[in-house]
Structures are given as C-alpha cells and as structure tokens.
Amino acid sequence: MLLLKFSPNFFSVLDILLVAVILYQLYNLVKGTIAVNILIGLGVIYLILLGLVSLDKDNMPMTGKILSNLQSVGIVAIVVVFQQEIRRFLLLVGKNASLQRNREWWMYFFGKKKVEKNNYARIKPIIDACKSMKQTRTGALIVFVKYYDEQFYQNSCEVLEAKISKRLLESIFQKHSPLHDGAVVIAGNKIKSASCILPLTDKTDLPAQFGLRHRAGIGVTESNDATAIIVSEETGEISYAKHGRVKINISFAELEKLLNKDF
Ligand SMILES: Nc1ncnc2c1ncn2[C@@H]1O[C@H](COP(=O)(O)OP(=O)(O)OP(=O)(O)O)[C@@H](O)[C@H]1O
C-alpha cells in the first residue's frame, strides 16, 4: 500500500540516499565493536516490549509504561552508551568538512596545481627508527595527530616538545628507558609527548596476537583524528592504524606512502 502511494521525486531520492549514507557510516563505526551487541540487545528488548504492548494494550499497563519511559529516556541512554561512537561519527563528519579538505577541492576545481608535499625529510627519521626497532624487536607505538588536544594527551603523558629524530625515538622505546611504556605522540614537526596511556579499542574481531599496544594504537585512531604506527615487540612487524582500522605487517615503502599522505 505504502509503495503504491510512493511517487519518487528529487527530494525523496535524496532523502533515501542520505539515510543510506548515514546508516552505512554508522554501520562502519560500530562494525566489529561491542556496540553491535548493545544495539542488538536494545533492539530485541524494544521489539519484545512493543510486541507485548500491541498485543494487549489495555491489560498490560505496566509494560506500556515501561515502554513509554524507555522511549523518553532512550535518547539520553543512547548518547551515554554510545558516546565513543558518536564522537567518532562527529569527527568523521568534521574531518570531511574541514577547511583543508575544502581547500583541496577548490584547488582542484580552479585548476591550481596541488603543491606536492615533500615530507620526506620529516618522515625519514621516523621510518629509520622503525627500521632499527624492527631489527632489534623493540616494541613501539607512535601516534600522529593533526590537532594536539592537550587535555587528552597531557594527562597521562610526559611532555617533550622535541625535534623528531631517529635516535630520540629509539632511546624512548628502548626497554630500559623510563619513558618506553606507552605511546609517543607527534604533531607537526615535534615529538609532543611520550609514555602516553591511550584509550583501548573494544573491537572483538582483532587477530589473537594483538595485545595492549595494538589495542591502544587502534583505539586512539577511533576516538581522535589520529594515525598510529605500531612496532611489535614479539614479531617486529609494523602495523598502521587509521580510523580504527589496522594494516598489518606493512613494508617500509608502504609506510612511507601512508605517512606522506597522512602526516
Ligand atoms: N593504554 C595504553 N596506551 C599506550 N600504550 C600501552 C597501553 N597499554 C599498554 N601499552 C603498551 O603496550 C605494552 C604491552 O604490549 P603487549 O605485549 O600487551 O602488546 P602487543 O599488542 O601484544 O604488542 P607486541 O607485539 O609488541 O607484544 C606495554 O608495555 C605498554 O608500553
């Protein structure tokens, strides 16, 4: 019946497309996380209550009351339970609408040549340090942020504000260094801080060998506009995390490409 009445026009198609994009992005955000189970749980409870109430509206006043109360506090509860996912979603929207991104579009449309970022000098010490730490099986976690949120990082970190150098990175992550536990955070041309405790991802579909270092590396890219290099102490493998996804065992050529793009 509903389909018969439906007469598509530009706005209805746009409406459907927007809903599809939003649902797809939400699905991407919660995919593989514990949030999926919470969502399913909420959905099941809601459907059961809805079913009971619609079966016998008059004789089940208590269930009806629970359902109406659930609806009124539902939004607040959802915001509290899914605050990490909402934060990630807003970050994603903000990032896509950011000035930098728009500037690139303007440059593209107006035919200005995009100046090729030559980051190599900046990236080289980091890649060299990773090469050396891979060889010596030194565990490391290096996080790159576009915006250094002092409150977020400084609570748990040791502030450094130091020039990026291979030897400094190696010294920080050396097993006997007092700063080796935790992550190094880099923003712009500076190593901002070391020994940072980061939020862990709650993803349930990660490889079994991933422990806290990998979980922290992925976690920080979920809740912040950040990317992370993880050097495994066990295997020496280099992994790269971005938007809560991780590429495992990447080559140094690939690492250079990724850093050149993201850093
Ligand atoms: N919340 C955290 N934030 C930043 N670093 C952390 C955090 N939790 C643990 N780490 C780091 O991870 C190290 C422990 O790594 P663990 O062996 O559990 O990780 P892993 O993912 O298995 O990596 P590896 O392959 O290097 O063993 C700690 O010594 C510490 O340096």
Automatic annotation (TrEMBL):
It catalyses: 2 ATP = 3',3'-c-di-AMP + 2 diphosphate. It comes from the Bacteria. The chain crosses the membrane at residues 6-27, 34-54, 66-82. GO terms for biological process: cAMP biosynthetic process. Its EC number is 2.7.7.85. GO terms for molecular function: adenylate cyclase activity; ATP binding; diadenylate cyclase activity. Residues 83-252 form the DAC domain. Coiled coil: none annotated. Gene3D superfamilies: DNA integrity scanning protein, DisA, N-terminal domain. Keywords: ATP-binding, Cell membrane, Membrane, Nucleotide-binding, Nucleotidyltransferase, Transferase, Transmembrane, Transmembrane helix. The keyword NADP does not apply. InterPro entries: C-di-AMP_synthase (IPR014046), CdaA (IPR034701), CdaA_N (IPR045585), DisA (IPR050338), DNA_integrity_DisA_N_sf (IPR036888), DNA_integrity_scan_DisA_N (IPR003390). It is an enzyme of class 2 (transferase). The keyword Cell membrane applies. Probably a homodimer. Belongs to the adenylate cyclase family. DacA/CdaA subfamily. PANTHER family: DIADENYLATE CYCLASE (PTHR34185:SF1). Catalyzes the condensation of 2 ATP molecules into cyclic di-AMP (c-di-AMP), a second messenger used to regulate differing processes in different bacteria. This is Diadenylate cyclase. It comes from Mucilaginibacter yixingensis.
